[in-house]
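Each record in this resource describes a single protein on a pair of labelled lines. An example record follows, reproduced without changes.
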Amino acid sequence: MATSPSLETWTLAPGLIVTRMGYGAMQLAGPGVFGPPKDRDAAIAVLREAVELGISHIDTSDFYGPYVVNEIIKEALYPYPDGLHLVTKVGARRGDDGSWIPSLTPQSLVQQVHENLSHLGLEALDIVNLRVEGHEVSVGDPVAEPFSALAELQKQGLIRHLGVSGVTSAQLTEAQQIAPVVTVQNLYNLANRHDDELVDRCARDGIGYAPFFPLGGFTPLQSEALDGVASRLNTSAQQVALAWLLQRSPAILLIPGTSSVEHLRENVAAASLQLPEDAIAELNAIGK
């Protein structure tokens, strides 16, 4: 697949190069990330447009739906174009009521990896992130046992690279003592800056940092300063928030989600938006 010249890339590992502007597929499921989408054809169109725009990094998981999103990805994009990298997560199940249930036993993780392989139609997963308990705010539990289970699957050739999600810096170090970590996926955006030090660490260590909920997630970002900068630059607040993240650190990989082709194009356009220094200084103050 051809990568758009406007989309910068980041090398996660030898032979693993992704566009820094990616796409998060979570919103392709139904309300509450549960059940099928209202319009399956529209979901397929968004995925195909993402690839057409040059995005080479799609974030997904079998617990989106559950299963629904991965099945839609396969329907829309299989056989996958060369250079397209699918990043998935394991570590949770969904209850019948849509609840998120931690599921981190080695046996469960093995099963989850095989389910992701099946639903995506792959023989090996490019990157698997271990979603730890706490997720949005890590409780700091040891990750050695579940991460070791994934490292064993990596040795078997079912996973090419490993990542972690919802972790502290100490948990990242613990995981690195078991196997190389190429991605960290944590909560981070203009208004939630608790991970500032970890973002900088990832840049130093060559690890991709993918902030989930880059636009606030279920509670969209609201800020007079953000709106003011967007108005001066004649662009949207969402595009400014994404551009700020891209300029915050070269290691940041964005995975904004949408079920709209129009919104997807707006997100990708943010990769070409260069914020002036005075705007960055004003935005930096939001999360302090």
